[in-house]
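Data card: per-record layout.
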Amino acid sequence: MEPQRPNVKTALPLSLERYHISEEYGFLLPDSLKELPDHYRPWMEIANKLTQLIDAHQLRVHVDKMPLLSCQFLKGHREQRLAHLVLSFLTMGYVWQEGEEQPAKLPGNWEPGNHHLISWGREPAWFYTGDCFGGESSSAWDKGSCSGHECHLAAQPGGPAPSPDATETFYSGHHQSLREDARWKDNPAMPAGLMYEGVSKEPLKYSGGSAAQSTVLHAFDEFLGIRHSKESADFLYRMRDYMPPSHKAFVEDIHSAPSLRDYILSSGQEYLLTAYNQCLQALAELRSYHITVVTKYIITAAAKGKCGKPNHLPGPPQALEDRGTGGTAVMSFLKSVRDKTLESILHPRG
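The structure for this 350-residue chain is written out next.
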């Protein structure tokens, strides 16, 4: 449920450094780490050959031999972020090595503390590395997983046209790994969830990576005072639990600050109203472009697959084709948040 904005009389000081946010790079890590301390070499050795191990159906064998390592020796958020990325990829590869017909439970050498490290901040991999969207890779194994797939074109309006099979490659390859491989909630392939040995006696359920976990969009919504429908808002607030804790705190502190929208409404200043509406229009245009990208790279690609178009790549399960990476009915959700953004536009009084 959407939290109520408190009646705050004074502005709260916001220090970006306190929230691990860069003034230049935003929520991305500048000069992101490529290696973890030597204690975690067993993780990195497997991660650096992840693609080859999955292709050879040997990842589970190597992970099962991996020693139990505690996350207590990770120093600071930068090492935690890289460790989270590494463990998330190992987790996805381990569970789905043999496809949706044979998902695996996680073995006991995933320590409970490491399980929590995997669970928070389950953003899409590009959010941390930028690799799939034209940024720098944080490690060789991550770069290898994206090589040649041109998925970065989806986020570059006006950029060079993708190759003819780019949408097919993204849908069958990346969309699959970012969606059902990354989630064990609302997934027909594992309806009970995922069993974490040594962590819980019952299976656990987590959503997959989703743009709805992107801190920047939540920050814009809170700063501009956009209120979404109950269904969309419930999903969005649930997605905040997958952000890095410092980023979630940033969004919540913006929510607790005085309302920009209320200030503009009470100011009577037309130039402020105009500037505010321009921000809303720009955000709505971004969300419209997101709809275009999803239509091209997911919905249209799925339709081609249903029509019997030859496809040499394994595609996501039929039951998941209309779902978003976080488990939402993707198009209705995206159109709802776009429309609510436009409905927030203010009109002059009088």
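Known properties of this structure: The chain has 14 helices and no strands. The longest helix spans residues 270-306.

See the next section for split statistics.
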